[in-house]
Amino acid sequence: MSGCRTRRHARDTCAGHDGGVTRPALLAISHGTSSPAGQAAVASLVDAVAARLPYTLVRLGHVDVQQPDVAASLDAIPQGTPVVIVPLLLSAGYHVRVDLINQSAGRGDVTIAPALGPDDRLVDALIARLTPLAPAPEDALVLAVAGSSDDRANEDCRVTARMLGERLGREVAVGFLAAADPRLDVAVTAGGDRVVVADYLLAPGYFHDLAVTLSGSAPVAPPLLGSDEPPASLVDLVVDRYKGAAGLSD
Length: 250
Known about the structure:
With 250 residues, this protein is an alpha/beta fold. It is 37% helix and 16% strand.
């Protein structure tokens, strides 16, 4: 482990140099949540990413709800250091297409990586969360997603449902928690008497609680992140989004 990592927090590294080459900082931007469990889960993911990138300055900011916001997070990174923003968002909705662009416009050395999904590694994490619930062949599967006013983001989630269905060899319906139809409760009811809900949410918080409420008696898998160790597939995905946007091959 690099000796330049501070004792104060594992996400703060003093190095931006690797063999004389300045590496862009990685600014991971989450949606933000008021849930302490959700905050801790996202911070744990970013800590794991930082451990994989010992010569990279890694910071966490938020597009909504929490502080520091995008502008404050960028201000905390030294001027002259290029920055790659990696959205910790599962689809490319309004936050990715509009908010991140607007909120980073004051700094010219910023590159915004794609959203995390759709991606096979997210499907890996979904299956890992579903497995303890042991869905039976006769159980209907519903993917609970947050929903967006931008239907391109909703389509990203539908693609993920199809990818999950292909991996499991069964149909997976989609139920939205906001902004789109069908709502999760409608999708669960349409599934019949035996339904299992996969939770396509990054971390615990308001939307996961809503998913549990709307699912009624149907069991709901945990979000992708929790109090356990972040899935290696998700850490790989964030690192790859950073390296791709930064033009790094190692």
